[in-house]
TrEMBL record:
It is an enzyme of class 2 (transferase). Its EC number is 2.6.1.13. Its cofactor is pyridoxal 5'-phosphate. This is Ornithine aminotransferase. The modification N6-(pyridoxal phosphate)lysine is found at residue 256. One of its GO terms (cellular component) is cytoplasm. Keywords: Amino-acid biosynthesis, Aminotransferase, Cytoplasm, Plasmid, Proline biosynthesis, Pyridoxal phosphate, Transferase. It comes from the Bacteria.
Length: 405
């Protein structure tokens, strides 16, 4: 490592809060599926900033939209209107079929906004007694990092030391529709879940689960909120992961790739009248719905569709998973995934996924370990068959042992 990179890492360590433990690779440039470090080494990005860069790094059309809008108008606040918000609504509604949209910035803000909204809906529309609203969530969930969101996390690292917590949540095991049904009370206003749990290690629920949750929510007049911040916008080979089971959530949360990685843009999408309960002054965000965000998101959505990225995710993802499954290695417990949301879970005896990620990094692949024994693989959706084949060679070398220290 050149002194420059070591200096940057040292400075980060000295001045930055230590709330991350990144691989020691200092990236300086990105294009498509590739990123380059300060020494000019090229890597194939198999994380895509946790699926925020589905469109590939520095996509030229999104960049063009960003630069062009930045030179015209960036922020008005919602005290005034801007000429990008309406077309953003129109294009997002056309893409997703939603009827109402609330624009926010980070994913956590979209989750928080949905929680606020369904509580209000519960009191005003469902007649739940004041302050009694309950929301059912799933174990091993990941929905963000705010106090309310970590209040219903089951991860000790996410929660520990951060109390007191926000009440009003009930946790049921992910993938267990019977447990969810049993947890519904007259005060249940919503169920909040991820269609596939990403941070938990790409955990796919049993077939039929989302359909059953959908039916339960309809029967019991409970709002179904799907957090598609990571699974959405093509990652799993469909625009939204809910499509794999032919269901439609009442409220869908998107973020991450909504801006192609240029800028934090998130949104609450509603298919019911849930968002209708918000009146002026009851919710907002200085940056939410700003013209720069809207222009960037419009371009990011457009290239996703125009350049066939969703179908490519389905095709390359199926091939990638098939080939990962064919690697003969005694450290692999399971290869799983949907579309380009993939994971290789290792046997505990393998000594943890981190060192495999270090070994992959040495071979030019950046992937992320999660929950000790799982390597998460989520390249940009523009990846080609040749690039998948090259990545597979590196995974094969590392997972068959010879390349790991
Ligand atoms: C990343 C993520 C969030 C939080 O998004 P931020 O932009 O980091 O606040 C919420 N839900 C899911 C499923 C995520 O993957």
């Amino acid at each position: 490592m050149l002194p420059h990179a070591a200096d940057l890492i040292g400075t980060e360590h000295r001045l930055g809060a230590h709330n991350y433990k990144p691989l020691d690779v200092v990236l300086a440039r990105g294009e498509g599926v590739y990123v380059w470090d300060t020494e000019g080494n090229r890597y194939l990005d198999c994380l895509s900033a946790y699926s925020a860069v589905n469109q590939g790094h520095c996509h030229p059309k999104v960049l063009e939209a960003m630069v062009s809008q930045a030179s015209k108008l960036t922020l008005t606040s919602r005290a005034f209107r801007n000429d990008q918000l309406a077309p953003f609504y129109e294009e997002l509604a056309a893409l997703t079929g939603s009827h109402k949209i609330l624009p926010m910035n980070s994913g956590a803000e979209a989750v928080e906004s949905a929680i606020k909204t369904v509580r209000k809906w519960g009191y005003e529309v469902r007649g739940v007694p004041e302050n009694q609203a309950e929301i059912i969530v799933c174990s091993d969930n990941f929905h963000g990092r705010t106090i309310t969101i970590v209040s219903f996390s089951t991860d000790p690292d996410a929660r520990g030391g951060f109390g007191p917590f926000t009440p009003g949540f009930r946790t049921v095991p992910f993938g267990d529709a019977a447990a969810l049904e049993a947890a519904i009370t007259p005060n249940t206003v919503a169920v909040l879940l991820e269609p596939i749990q990403g941070e938990a290690g790409v955990v796919i629920p049993p077939a039929g689960y989302l359909r059953r949750v959908r039916d339960l929510c309809t029967e019991r007049n409970v709002v179904m909120i799907l957090d598609e911040i990571q699974t959405g916008l093509g990652r799993t080979g469909k625009l939204l992961a809910e499509e794999h089971e032919g269901v439609e959530a009442d409220v869908t949360l998107i973020g991450k790739a909504l801006s192609g990685g240029f800028y934090p843009v998130s949104a609450v999408l509603s298919n019911s009248e849930v968002l209708g309960v918000l009146k002026p002054g009851q919710h907002g965000s200085t940056f939410g719905g700003n013209p720069l965000a809207c222009a960037v998101a419009r371009a990011a959505m457009r290239v996703l569709v125009e350049e066939g990225m969703i179908d490519n995710a389905a095709a390359q993802g199926a091939y990638f998973l098939d080939q990962l499954g064919a690697i003969r290695s005694n450290v692999i417990r399971e290869a799983r995934g949907r579309g380009l949301m993939l994971a290789v879970e290792l046997h505990p005896e393998a000594g943890g996924a981190r060192r495999y990620c270090e070994a992959l990094r040495a071979r030019g692949v950046l992937a992320k370990d999660t929950h000790d024994h799982t390597i998460r693989i989520a390249p940009p959706l523009v990846i080609t068959r040749e690039q998948v084949d090259w990545a597979l060679e590196q995974f094969d070398a590392v997972l068959t042992g010879t390349a790991v220290p």
